[in-house]
Amino acid sequence: MMKDDIAKVYFTEEELQAKVRELGRQITEDYKDAKEDIYCVGILKGASVFYTDLVRAIDLPVRFDFMIASSYGSGTSTTGSVKILKDLDYDIEGKHLIVIEDIIDSGTTMSYLLKYFEHRKPASVKLCALLSKPSRRTAEVAIDYCGFEVPDEFLVGYGLDYAEIYRNLPYIGVLKPEVYA
Ligand SMILES: O=P(O)(O)OC[C@H]1O[C@H](OP(=O)(O)OP(=O)(O)O)[C@H](O)[C@@H]1O
Ligand SMILES: Nc1nc2[nH]cnc2c(=O)[nH]1
Ligand SMILES: [Mg+2]
Predict the structure, then answer these.
(1) Which one in 7, 8, 63, 139 has a CA-CA gap of 20 to 30 Å to 38?
(2) Please, what is the average pLDDT of the chain?
């Protein structure tokens, strides 16, 4: 079973779902009077699971868009360069963007994407990240809605992968050292 590979559970399914509801309520409250269209932009693939839960906790007419960005290759450390493998489908000029991400670690991915979005002149951009690892930050990123701060450990589950596996775990944890061997 997949759980046999997990050394420690950091956030249970229940804890994650409670946080998602709280973030959804906060976003709903903050955008309830917005005049412009709201675009929820998910950064695939890591944000996929959090995204689909969070949008269902937002009680407003939002639109979906996705980007695919990758800076980690297949390992556990950032390559430092961000590749956009899929761009936005829509012109976001004058729209509200809520960028939805699983984790801000070094900040490399998001600092790059936030600059990229600003060039497209949206009405506003806010970032919602489930996890933040502040001790690892090399590029500054302001997180408007942050789920949890986490220590410097490589986490898997709820969208977060190791070598593309473990994204479908409904909880977040760390792997046993022998899994990396
Ligand atoms: O703050 P950073 O150090 O840039 O790390 C955070 C990024 O790394 C992971 O994505 P990854 O590039 O591994 O691709 P994935 O989303 O497809 O897993 C994660 O989903 C974030 O997007
Ligand atoms: N799976 C996973 N991907 C990451 N990308 C940046 N930090 C992490 C992490 O802790 N786990
Ligand atoms: Mg990602």
Answers:
(1) 139
(2) 95
